[in-house]
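User: I'm writing a tutorial on reading structure tokens. Could you give me a worked example: one chain, its sequence, then its tokens, then a sentence or two explaining what the tokens reveal?
Assistant: Sure. Here is the example chain.
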Amino acid sequence: MPLFKQTEGERPDPAEVFTPARAVGPEMWARRMYAGHSTPEGLQKRFEQRMGEVGRQIVLHGDTGVGKTSLVQHILDTRKVDYIRVECGQPFDTMIKEALAAAGLTEDKFEIVEETSGQAGVKASLGLLFSGLQRSDTNTETKVSYPVSLPTTARVALSTAGVKVLFLDNFENLRAKDHGKETAVEIAQLMKSFSDTGDVKLVVAGIPEESEALLLLDEATSRRTAEIEVPRMSDEELDEILQNGERLLNIEFDADARAAIIRFSDGFPYYTHLLALHATRKALEDGENRVSSAHFVAALGEIIEDASLSLRRAYANAAETSGEVMVRKSIMTAMARSEKSEMTFREIREAFQQIHPQYDDLKKLNFINVDLGKLVERGILQTRGVKKSKDRAYRFVNPLMRTFVRLKAAQEQYDTQMALPTEPQVAPPPELPMPAQEPPRRTE
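And here are its predicted structure tokens:
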């Protein structure tokens, strides 16, 4: 529902079409056919098949920004499945209360659940949950035992309310919480409880490392759970997002703008929506229905300002703001420009030299190893392999950082070129600095 009402026949606000801050609506859905070379049947089909298996629970994992939330919500909405979505992060009891409240089961309504379900003790368990007398795991407080376990209580209550799927999103939010491990164990028990009956299904989505750790908590749960990877989108799928936007907004992306948005997106629909939104706004501000690469370049500052706060903060904390050779900033730029998502020290050193050709001897660049370590300490990079080994590899902790660094470099290059004296006084904008061409992502 748009915040500002539009008159009939008026062009929609681009922010209602390109939505980097929320899951996409049905008119902007791009089919998820690509699921990796080992899954030729397609991502959507695989997800729907596993959802249809009785007792099967689902764990989706993939990088932030690849569209996990949109995938789940689109499939469930399209199939008209009643579901509840809960954002992970709170203690388990709080998450369950939120799910029950979303299902319409509040404190003044739980009396009917035990009688309706025929499950003795459920009403008492709900009473303890809603009254705030949750159990304590500390040694200094008296532990309260539920008449029925909380996973069973949640399953029965949700089933009674007609809910078919409980969707726990962004499981990685628990990583930095004091209650994270305890809550993860209870989610694993919840999956086991749901598997035992089959009347309610649990879907958990998160980044790969955290989601895989969840399945290792309980072997029985792991056997009953389908682990599905949500990869980055193929170029064809990203282009479908742009085509949908063109149709809804009655605009057109020219070939250069289309290529720039797809290549800078790096497989992330989050970036496709973000880049297309601001480029389209610039075109419409100019009274044009054709979005060009010039509009994309003009929007770079606003794109960067509108990017994830965590990305902006992490970059600002890591990059130097002055100095003839800003080493950490140059390392990030060198890695972002590469077509490789993971690079060895030698490869980083060679890419660094391309930015600073005054270092004609690669051995003179060994000093960057200190700043590589600082980027690891500051949470920008992560490493894999034996220390001081030539095969030790580095990559961005947040895969979205690579495009953010590319955008920052493109903006700075553009600003530098525009600041140069030119004749005549009003000069055409320079060409957009494009990221390295990557191998095309095929749709299987």
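What the tokens reveal: The chain has three domains: 31-229, 235-308, 309-398. Strands lie at 57-61, 83-87, 165-169, 201-206, 225-229, 252-253, 290-291, 343-344, 381-384, 393-396.
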